[in-house]
Design goal:
The protein is 48% helix and 4% strand. The chain has 167 residues and is mostly helical. A two-stranded antiparallel ribbon has the order 1-2. The N and C termini lie far apart (66 Å).
């Protein structure tokens, strides 16, 4: 039996068809992207302007994990920026508000257990690079006294301060 005759025989065509929405590709709406200038402002603020970070995050809560593209594969989140300059206050504020932490930020804060467990899970993270090519050892160095154990651990694993050129 032909499909249309089958549906008519069931009397179901009026029940089945309304379940589907047929739209042309011209009418499909996409969610808007975050404004690139706003993301850049937020990431730059996270390097040292806590008040502006708080203001922008209050106005745009979904901005927390966005990344600015500096080009050539150099992506930076606000947490990445705060971490590589050693701004623990802003980094902590961002994490307290849902920023996705990582091994670089753990190194900054001297969280040896976290750094060790992540390296045991994925040893290649020893050579991971953050925004602008900053290494784990850079983050431990900039973490100061709080991160001395992490620094010694990383040095013991053969890591050095080499930074790769992004641009």
């Amino acid at each position: 039996m032909h499909r249309s005759k089958f549906l008519k025989s069931l009397g179901a065509s009026s029940l089945i068809l309304p379940m589907f929405s047929f739209q042309s590709s011209d009418t499909i709406q996409e969610d808007p992207m975050m404004d690139k200038a706003l993301v850049k402002e937020f990431v730059q603020a996270a390097h040292g302007k806590l008040d502006l970070v708080k203001e922008l995050l209050a106005e745009h809560p979904i901005i927390i994990n966005t990344a600015h593209d500096w080009k050539f594969g150099d992506f930076e989140t606000a947490l990445g920026g705060a971490s590589h300059v050693g701004n623990k206050e802003i980094a902590k504020y961002l994490m307290d508000n849902g920023a996705q932490g990582n091994i670089l930020t753990a190194a900054l804060f001297g969280e040896l257990k976290i750094v060790k467990s992540m390296l045991e899970f994925a040893p290649a993270l020893l050579n991971t690079k953050g925004p602008h090519g900053f290494t784990l050892l850079h983050h431990a160095n900039i973490g100061g006294e709080d991160a001395l154990e992490v620094k010694e651990y990383l040095l013991g694993m053969g890591l050095n301060e080499t930074r790769f050129k992004i641009y």
